[in-house]
Amino acid sequence: MSIDSDSIVSDGFDLMFVKDYNQIIEDINFSIDVSPDLSESYFIRGLAKYELQDLEGACEDLHKADELMHLDALYFIDLICK
């Protein structure tokens, strides 16, 4: 069985629209286990954690996404992580 982290990340974006944040985190955790260098995974998980009021976890993930050069991470860090 082939694991496609990009598909998991894409599914995570889809789940954001239905507000299934716990499922997003579960799926993205798996994606990170498989491909720990995808900035998009940390970015999406950070946004999901923010929606669940886990500000510390959200900021950790957003900082990791920024470290991995995600283009939008810094905007959300400035917005959320004060």
The portion of residues assigned to helices is: over 70%
Large-scale geometry:
globular
CATH architecture: Alpha Horseshoe
| Approximate strand percentage | under 5%
- The assigned structural class equals mainly alpha
How many DSSP E strands?
0
Largest sheet: none
How confident is the prediction overall: mean pLDDT?
86
Compute the number of helices: 5
One letter per element, helices H and strands E, the order comes to HHHHH
Number of structural units classed as domains? 1
CATH fold field value: Serine Threonine Protein Phosphatase 5, Tetratricopeptide repeat
CATH superfamily: Tetratricopeptide repeat domain
CATH class: Mainly Alpha
Specify Rg, calculated over alpha carbons: 12 Å
- N- to C-terminal distance: 42 Å
Q: Uncertain regions: pLDDT < 50 for 5+ in a row? A: none
Fold and architecture overview:
The chain is mainly alpha-helical. The protein has a single domain, classed as Serine Threonine Protein Phosphatase 5, Tetratricopeptide repeat, CATH 1.25.40.10. It has helices at residues 5-18, 21-34, 39-51, 55-67, 73-80. Helix 2 packs antiparallel against helix 3 and helix 3 runs antiparallel to helix 4.
